[in-house]
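FW: tagging you since you asked about this chain on Friday. Here's the raw sequence from the shared folder, copied in full. Didn't touch anything.
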Amino acid sequence: MSAGHVASEVSRHKCLIYEGEPAQQLPVVLPLLLDGLATNWRCLYLGDPATLPMVDQALNAKGIDTEREQSRGALVLSADRSHLVNGRFDPKAMIDGLSRAIDESVEQGFEGLCATGDMRWELGDDLNFDRLLEYEARLEQLFREGRPLRGICQYRRDVVPPQALRHALMAHRSTYIGNTLNRDNLFYMPPQILLEGPGAEAQAEWMCQQIIRIMKAEEQRDEVLHSLERRVAERTKDLEEANRSLEAFAYSVSHDLRAPLRAIGGFSQILEEDFSGALGAEGMLQLERVQANVRKMSALIDGMLALSHVMKREVQRQPVNLTDLAEDVAQELRESAPDRVADWVIHRELHVVGDPTLLRALLGNLMGNAWKFTARRERTKIEVGSLTAADGGTVFYVRDNGAGFDLALAEKLFAPFQRFHAEQEFAGTGVGLATVHRIVTRHGGRIWAKSAVNEGATFYFTL
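HL: got it, structure written out here
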């Protein structure tokens, strides 16, 4: 006897404890029979005659031709109680009969015997349950001998004597309670303890050993958890330091670039105003290119600062009406190009919990992109709405009928400074979607897109 007993795998000898109608057994028993039939095991179901049609119909519903399987001996649906002699139950005789059934199955070309039975039907009168523990212990011995046997003993708790459940738990290492499998049953005792040990003394010693085993496992678990907490704290500290360094770098670079950029812009303005005649047409064209790149660089710096601000800002969660935010963004976009023909659809009651400033920036970027990439459409169509996901959660989206993009490039979609369209087609810095991605991530959500070239785009996100 050792405290080192560990269930390395699920036992082939299980019990099912359930209550309610007999159909409650099917989620556990049916997979056993289906797997047995699929792998050439003889499958035996022993139970009340009233339950046999239920099992037959359930197998038929799974595509099993039960008449064919029974005719070839692969499936046995039986209500036989010949093992009860004058109504009495003999565990040893039952095990001997089961052993012969295993041998017959192998001799007839099957891998072994896959058996399940209703213990109330198998044992009959309550008096027979006094020998249940002996039967289950002998059955466990049969499994331990390595015989080709797989089985589930069924206990319907509302029809078996109360002590039967205690004995079932003592005799099975793996136990189903309802549909949930307990792989390593704490109350399990090996058959040598139940059959050959000196009674209560051996059982008490085994229980102590199991308690010691659980305590050692808990100590090991605690050590692993403490080690994990320490490593998480260290990684978090390193990540925070890296983020601070990155933020400081972005801020420093952005501000350090401002001064020379302003100088370039200022001097180019002086050249344009005071020396345009000397420069000539070609010179002025080159000067305009310089000024255009100054403006582009300034926009990139603004994007870097905005991205840094999103990373640095603490998320202030509160109820937010996305509908109101979307209406504000739409009004700003309409005012920026009042001559454009646009159809806006903004769903009502888009409520979330999040940081209103960050969520305003999120919608500003997504709706701004939709506005930008629909600029060449005769009629712009932009929709902001929500739908219910398969898991019951809410998914928000921004949809447009614009230029779209090739989804093969989607893995780069949310990386900073990535662009799918030429500057001549649509201006931009490639920072907006990176900012959106970070806002969504900081809210614990995710974002993805569906699109095709010239067929518009839809951006989905959760919060």
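FW: The first helix runs from residue 26 to 38.
HL: agreed, and The mean pLDDT is 86.
FW: great, closing this out.
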